[in-house]
Amino acid sequence: MTENLLNLLLKDLKTNHRENERLSDQVLSTLKCLFPRIGLGALDLVDNCKVEKLIGASTKRSCFKVIGSSRTPYFCYISANYCSCPAFKYSVLRNEENYTCKHVLAALLSDAMNLTKNREIPDKELSEILRQM
Ligand SMILES: [Zn+2]
């Protein structure tokens, strides 16, 4: 359910941002409605350029690095809906209270609006990050 609505939201966001270079009130209220606790926080991370995509130099494997509000870097896979942060472990995996955390949401929003900075890193470094996730 949330996943389908999220996909619709991301599609709207993509078109909306491309055409207007800003988000409409409708997109913003859908975001707040779907994610009352993390929606605006996630948007804040995007606005403050906290989202980066790390790409392995030759493997081209990738993951997102999102700097959290406490300046801690967290690593996310958006396709698998996974984040290395404690909130994800507790409220998503353990208690199933939320569909995702604000870092994954920030990565999804940033990706949809084409605002993510890509950074190529050595494959070894990326493997190390993925191993620790
Ligand atoms: Zn997270």
UniProtKB/TrEMBL annotation:
<keyword id="KW-0479">Metal-binding</keyword>
<dbReference type="InterPro" id="IPR007527">
    <property type="entry name" value="Znf_SWIM"/>
</dbReference>
<keyword id="KW-0863">Zinc-finger</keyword>
<dbReference type="GO" id="GO:0097196">
    <property type="term" value="C:Shu complex"/>
</dbReference>
<dbReference type="GO" id="GO:0008270">
    <property type="term" value="F:zinc ion binding"/>
</dbReference>
<feature type="domain" description="SWIM-type">
    <location>
        <begin position="74"/>
        <end position="112"/>
    </location>
</feature>
<dbReference type="Pfam" id="PF04434">
    <property type="entry name" value="SWIM"/>
</dbReference>
<dbReference type="GO" id="GO:0000724">
    <property type="term" value="P:double-strand break repair via homologous recombination"/>
</dbReference>
<keyword id="KW-0862">Zinc</keyword>
<protein>
    <recommendedName>
        <fullName>SWIM-type domain-containing protein</fullName>
    </recommendedName>
</protein>
